[in-house]
Amino acid sequence: MRRSGILFAAVATLAGVLGAPLTATAADTCVSAASATYRHTFDGASGKATISAVRPLCAGQSQSFGLISYTDGDSGQFRYATDSATLTAKSRTVRLDVVVPPCRTRVTAITGTGLLDEVTSDDNPYGAATLGVSGSRSTGAPAHYRGGSSDCSPEPTVTFTSACDGSYRATLTNAPGANVSAAFLTGGRLTRLAPGRSTTLRGPRDGSLTIRVSTFTTYVGSWRPPAAGCTSAPAPNPVAPTTNTPGTQPPPAGFAPSAPAPTLPATTAAPGVDNAPARYYPPPTTATPQAQAARSGMSLGSMLAVSFGLLLIGGGGYFLVRVLRSFREP
After folding, report:
1. Model confidence over 167-184: pLDDT tens digits?
2. Which helix (H) or strand (E) holds 62?
3. Which of 7, 49, 161, 178 is the Cys-Cys partner for 155 at CB 3.0 to 4.6 Å?
C-alpha cells in the first residue's frame, strides 16, 4: 500500500512536469495575420489606442492599424490628425496617438490603413474594420468616438504668387479668428495651421498645385504672369571701349594735359553698353618754348645760359667774317 502511494505520487509529478511545457507551447504557437485575433483599449476623447496580438504572428507576417481624428461639421468630417503602426512577429503590441480638435469631433481606430480624408455620411464609414464592433477580430470597446459641443470654425485661405523666373508659391493661412487649427491636404500630405499662422509651399515648375482645405474648398494654382508685368533682368554692362573722335590722335605715353579737357557732347553708346560718354583726349598743339621747356623740365636759368651761349657763338661768327674780309682787301 505504501509502495503504491509512492508510485502514484511519482507518476503525478512526472505528468505535471511534462504537461506544463506542452500547455505553454500551445498558447505561444504563432499564427498568420489572416487568422490572428487581438485585444485593444481605446480612449477617443484623448485620441489614444493600444492593440495587442493574442498570439504572436509568425515570422514574415504583419498587420497594420490606423487611428484618425476629424473635425465634424455640417458639411461632413475632415481629416485632422492620423497615426498608424504595424504588428509583427517581434512587435506584439502597438500604441497609437492623435491630436483631437477642441470642437465637434470623431475619432476612430481601424484594422488596416484605409483612412479616409473626408467623410460626408453621418454614419461610421469603416464598418467591421472598426476595432471592437461586430465582425472585428479585436476584443474591446467599439473604437469609434463622437464628442465635442462647439462648432468647428477653421478659416483657411490659399493664395498663389508667381515670380518672373517661372516659379510660384502657395501661401496657406488660417485666420486669427478661427477656433480650431485648419487642415490643408496637398497630394495626401497634411499641413495643420493654428489660428493666425501661415506657411508657404513651392509649386512644381510647369505644373499645377491642388490644395484641399478643411472647409471643403479646393484651390488650384499654377504659374501666371505677375500683374505688375515682367522685364528681363538687366545683364551686367561691359566697360565701354575707349574711342577717339575723328581727326584726333591717341595721347603719347606719359602725356598729362596742363588744363582740363574740354567737354564734348555725349556720344550715343552702342547697344548693350551703358550711355556714358566716350573718354576724350585733345589733339597735340604747337606749344611755346616756355611750355616746351616746362614740359621737358628745363629751368629759367638753364634757358638763359643756353641763350647766352647762342649769342656768343653768333657774335664770334660775325667777327670771324670781318677778319677774313680784311685779309682780302688790298
Report:
1. 999 999 999 999 999 999
2. strand 62-73
3. 178
